[in-house]
Amino acid sequence: MRDARGGHTPHTTQGVRSYYEAMTPAYLEGFGPVFQGSRPDSTEELLDYLADALDLEPGMRVLDAGCGVGGPAIGIAQRRDVRIDGMTLAQVQADLAQIRIAEAGLTNRVRVTQGDFATISELYPEPVFDRVMFLESLCHAEDYRIVLAGAYRALKQGGALYIKDFYAVDHRSRPAVQQAQAGDLAKLNALYHMQVPDLASLVDVVGELGFLIKFVRMPEFESTYRHWAKYEHVAQRSWNPTSGQPGEVIQGIELFCWKV
Ligand SMILES: C[S@@+](CC[C@H](N)C(=O)[O-])C[C@H]1O[C@@H](n2cnc3c(N)ncnc32)[C@H](O)[C@@H]1O
């Protein structure tokens, strides 16, 4: 398990990029245009849910940090009158996103570029965003504190950070399970070039940076692993946890907090 406060991870941003450059076709086949493992069966329901969770108002400017092929950005812009800047490590995703944005007729409100979210504060040194969102992308960060400090700086006063991601289930009260879970987490992290943290340490980092938490919650939709399983089948990469069902090893959580 990773402590989100600590800097070191065994994976590298370059490794994450290579992974997504290679695996994006399999992601599209398995997940469709929204690359999220914590989700309801219907992509439309997920997009409705995200648009609501983000608490958006007309005219807002949003940063989608780790935006994939722009599936969420396009879906949210179709539901709310907002402008969205997306960034993704993988050039192949940025190229596909441009095509999808043009097809959706959203070039005036959605734009996606290739970039590393560890450099948000260099790309956006002024506070210009009303929302910064990380949709199952922050788990790939080499250093959470650097990335989230950049998000804080890029947000306007009164703006908000929204993180939807996976965290290790806290099994400290069940030491035998915790030991088996450690093996499953190590396999997951290696397979997906990420490092799943414990939730408490992530909460600690956002609090330390000055964010004020509005909510930390389990997503309020009925989850399915169908799309994730399809991806693993297509990609021929199987996590297959042995300490429990996927939901007993990691849990999807949403966190919404204000810049005050
Ligand atoms: C599981 S996918 C989720 C994509 C998207 N948020 C969605 O919901 O469809 C993870 C995304 O994080 C991006 N990512 C990972 N590390 C990143 C980094 N350092 N900078 C920018 N994007 C990153 C990947 O390129 C990929 O698009």
TrEMBL record:
It comes from the Bacteria. GO terms for biological process: methylation. CDD domains: AdoMet_MTases (cd02440). GO terms for molecular function: methyltransferase activity. Keywords: Methyltransferase, Transferase. Pfam families: CMAS. This is Methyltransferase domain-containing protein. It comes from Flavisphingopyxis soli. The lineage of its organism: Bacteria, Pseudomonadati, Pseudomonadota, Alphaproteobacteria, Sphingomonadales.
